[in-house]
Write the structure tokens for this entry.
Amino acid sequence: MSGKAFDTRSPLSRARGLGPAKEGVAHWWAQRVTAAALVPMTLWFVVSVILLAGAEHATVVAWVGSPVTTVALLLLIAAVFHHAQLGLQVVIEDYVHNEGLKIAGLLVIKAAALVLAIGAAFAVLRIALG
Amino acid sequence: MPSDMPTAERASAARPPAPRPLSPHLQIYKPQLTSVLSILHRATGIALAVGTSVLVWWLVAAAAGPAAFATVQGFLGSWIGKLMLLGWSVSLFYHLANGIRHLFWDAGYGFELKTAYASGWAVVAATAGLTALAWLVALGGMR
């Protein structure tokens, strides 16, 4: 066994001989892929919303309901909420060290992301499909 | 430690805890551009995640009809609504610009100290510029 003065592994970790859970790469990749996708999508959304500032209901509904916008909004919703829950997961894992609170927090943010994403997608589809 | 020991015995064998390295607490460090921008990326990310609920409200109200939509537009047009939108837009442009900076780091570029500071100031400038531009166009379009 290592005789080094500083070993970043805990005694328990050494005793068990376990490595990481091997799930980190998928999380890391998903965070970056959604980030890269969100760069153009966010710019498109912000420009669209700025041009719609103060617009009437009929104008906004016509915009949401046009086929290209509908599909783009659905993609945006999926990317935004996937990216958000991945990011919030890391924040909770970094700062919440009580195992029970951590699991509860993770469940809450993942459930909230799902509820908001489905709610937003349902609203867009309801407008698009009349 | 003999490797032929049973696992349970090895795990429980009396062994003083190794002197594990600890980093000093945050308040020891003088705030630097790089560290301030780093924590702001996380803070704006959390703010944007919370802000998506307003976006969902806006979409759901648009689907619900003109009356519900007028309520949202009225709220967003009020001073508190505009203040929230200002905070949301600053957070968005910051997180967007600094996120691109992060993607360059992830690809292995821009780690030199000079480059990290230059890109950091570029993010600050882009945030200010894009926020100002967005509000000029939005408020100009409403008149």
